[in-house]
Structures are given as C-alpha cells and as structure tokens.
C-alpha cells in the first residue's frame, strides 16, 4: 500500500497564479482532510470530506477550493495565490471520522512558496 | 473538543524513558485522548489513543489518570529518531459529519546522545 500520496512535493508560485495540489489514497478511506502548517506552528484544517461528493470547510478555507468525485482523490485548488498561502500542505485520510484504531494517515506534504 | 495543554519543549537522554505530559481538564466522558508526532518536515504520525484505561502498543504507552484530566505518553527507550513534536489531542468518539482532528502547538521532544 502506498498510503497517502501527495504531489508535487515542492512548488513556487507567483502571486495570482493558480494550482492544484493532488492527494490520493489507496486505503479505501471515506474521510479525507487538507491541513496547512505555517513555520513553527501547528496544523490548521482547510477542508475535509466524509465521502465522495461531500466536502465541508475547516478552520481556514478562504482562498481554497476542493472537490471529491471519487473515494481515492481529494485535490486542493488555489485560484489566486497570495504570499499568505506560503505554507506546507498535508493531506490525510482515515477510515473513521474519529480515526479509529489506526488514526489518521498523513501524506508527506507539499511545500508551497508564493512570491 | 476539550482543550489540551502541553509543555512547549522537553529533553531526554538516549536510551532513557521519555514521559510527555498533557493536561485536558475539561475532557468529556465520550472523548478519547490521541497522540501523534511529527518528525521534522514529515507528515504527522499516529502513535496511540485511549479512553480511560492505560494503553500500550509497539511504539509507546499511554497512562491516563483516574479522573481523566491528564495523561502521559511514555516512550520507554527513547532513540535519536524519536526527536519530534508530539501532539496530544482530545476528540469525541464516533463518526460525525464534523469529525476532524485539531492540532495545537505540541511538545518538541529532543533526544540527546
């Protein structure tokens, strides 16, 4: 099993550009999440999904959009990149909403710099 | 979800036990205590969780006080690879549409040779 796979690992964007951060999981997990982590800080939830076709906002959704057309994929879209979106982005998945016996599985992250 | 309080940093000698405390004085009866860790530049990793009984797995032990207002994560024989930020999270059991983990600042554990 690959677990949670995120691409790209690194990206530099210019202000106003758009991009999609990709996230895929092969564990047939219903729940998927996007977090961002600013330097020296904890993780903040951007969006989450409880199943294909169902998404909802987290703590810091402004400037982002998501879609969940299948169980496996949960892409995060940045429409007009701003310097405040410079961060490390983590995608995660879980079998149950509370994590269950195996907790949440995280990807290795996408490091995004907006200049 | 109940708020948790952890020390910002701790040190431990290699080979010794690392005991990481967490206060969660407002925990509710249906809330579990979860522990995750994040090694530098990597995604967080699930360690262990428990409700009221002590728990042990291949990574660590979790000791929860009888009143459930605090807990301690124990790494019995810390190695240099255990240097990481450790997050204590309290979360209600069960599946709800709003289910997600809330990460605080955590404890930076440094294991010294």
The largest chain-to-chain contact, stated as pair and per-chain residue counts, equals: A-B, 28 and 28 residues
Give the overall silhouette of chain B: globular
Q: Name the helix and strand elements of chain B from N-terminus to C-terminus, one letter apiece.
A: EEEEEEEEE
Strand content of chain B: over 45%
Overall structural class of chain A, as computed from helix and strand content, comes to: mainly beta
The number of helices of chain A is: 0
Q: Can you count the helices of chain B?
A: 0
> What are the low-pLDDT stretches of chain B, counting only 5+ consecutive residues below 50?
none
Structure write-up:
Helices cover 0% and strands 49% of the residues of chain A. Chain A has 115 residues and is mostly beta strands. In chain A, the strands form 2 sheets. In chain A, strands 2, 4, 5, 6, 9, 10 and 11 form a 7-stranded mixed β-sheet that branches. A 4-stranded antiparallel β-sheet of chain A has the order 1-3-8-7, with no helix packed on it. The model of chain A has no long low-confidence stretch (mean pLDDT 92). Chain B is mostly beta strands and 113 residues long. Helix content of chain B is 0%, strand content 46%. Chain B has strands at 9-13, 18-23, 31-38, 45-50, 55-56, 61-64, 70-75, 84-92, 107-112. Chain B is globular, with a radius of gyration of 14 Å. The model of chain B has no long low-confidence stretch (mean pLDDT 89). Chain A binds chain B through residues 4, 31, 33, 35, 41-45, 48, 50, 56, 58, 88, 90, 92, 96-99, 102-109, and chain B through 32, 34, 36, 41-47, 49, 87, 91-106.
Write the layout of secondary structure elements.
The complex is a heterodimer of chains A (115) and B (113).
Chain A lengths: L3 E4 L2 E4 L5 E7 L5 E7 L5 E9 L2 E4 L6 E3 L9 E3 L8 E8 L10 E2 L3 E5 L1
Parallel strand pairs in A: 2-11
Antiparallel strand pairs in A: 1-3, 3-8, 4-5, 4-9, 5-6, 7-8, 9-10, 9-11
Chain B lengths: L8 E5 L4 E6 L7 E8 L6 E6 L4 E2 L4 E4 L5 E6 L8 E9 L14 E6 L1
Parallel strand pairs in B: 1-9
Antiparallel strand pairs in B: 2-7, 3-4, 3-8, 5-6, 6-7, 8-9
């Amino acid at each position: 099993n690959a677990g949670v796979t995120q691409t790209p690992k690194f990206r530099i964007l210019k202000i106003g550009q758009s991009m999609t951060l990709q996230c895929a999981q092969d564990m047939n997990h219903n729940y998927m999440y996007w977090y961002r982590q600013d330097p020296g800080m904890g993780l903040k939830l951007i969006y989450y999904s409880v199943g294909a076709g169902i998404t909802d906002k987290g703590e810091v959704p402004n400037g982002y959009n998501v879609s969940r057309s299948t169980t496996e994929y949960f892409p995060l879209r940045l429409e007009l990149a701003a310097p405040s979106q410079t961060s490390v982005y983590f995608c995660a998945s879980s079998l149950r909403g509370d994590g269950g016996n195996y907790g949440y599985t995280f990807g290795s992250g996408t490091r995004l710099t907006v200049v | 979800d109940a708020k948790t309080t952890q020390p910002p940093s701790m040190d431990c000698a290699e080979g010794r036990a690392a005991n990481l405390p967490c206060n969660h004085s407002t925990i509710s009866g249906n809330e579990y205590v979860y522990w995750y860790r994040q090694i530098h530049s990597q995604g967080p990793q699930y360690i262990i969780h428990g409700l009221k009984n002590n728990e042990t797995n291949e990574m660590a032990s979790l000791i929860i006080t009888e009143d459930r207002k605090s807990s301690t994560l124990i790494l019995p024989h810390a190695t240099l690879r255990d240097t990481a930020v450790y997050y204590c999270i309290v979360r209600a059991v069960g599946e709800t549409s709003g289910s997600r983990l809330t990460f605080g600042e955590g404890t930076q554990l440094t294991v010294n040779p």
